């Protein structure tokens, strides 16, 4: 089992609607980049593992025949299904499932994605093995994971605010055994059977009109913040929220770009 509090569905259930409203603006450019690596066509079938509210699924649905989206959080899948229906995207099928045990036959998909999802699995090797299994020979997998927090001014500011409010929270230290380390990332993909593996760094810069807008984005879309809010009384939360808002008001200059960086791991299932 993993000690990561984000390896279970509950924090994602709690944050689902806020995440769906605020996070895709941050996450969508990474999904758009991932789709570029997969040579999709209007007949392609793709799977989006740990799809959340469908950040990648919604973009992919405009380019391919079928998108199968799975996530272990029921509220995330409910929101994905609702938003897909509202957008008239009838080729997205959404279901609740664990990404370590996919409900699909082998050798089916032209492309398989897990954007900022597989990185949380207690058994990443099973996550990679399942992506490999469901791909057809010659198919492409793209998986993304954050670079170390130290490389991302946006993440540093967010963790700075969290640490100011709760001294038990420290800025995460680099974990060289995780996908933050591109050599581990490459070796885990190769270990699952992928060939021609490449790990690409991708950065985006975000701006906020004001510290208040940054705070709203953070508080509505962050699973760690939702966990904190649910673990303390309303009074303690109000105190911590005030400390975090004061921290951002002091450190963030309106419209100043802050970058965040991820690694995208691309691999191919060998042809038979
Ligand atoms: C940071 S969100 C990413 C959502 C989306 N892929 C995106 O790029 O915006 C992480 C998602 O992974 C899901 N997740 C984490 N572990 C999972 C697992 N073992 N099986 C399925 N989904 C999982 C969470 O429920 C959450 O929706």
From TrEMBL:
One of its GO terms (biological process) is methylation. This is Methyltransferase domain-containing protein. Residues 46-139 form the Methyltransferase domain. InterPro entries: Methyltransf_25, SAM-dependent_MTases_sf. The keyword NADP does not apply. The keyword Methyltransferase applies. One of its GO terms (molecular function) is methyltransferase activity. Keywords: Methyltransferase, Transferase.
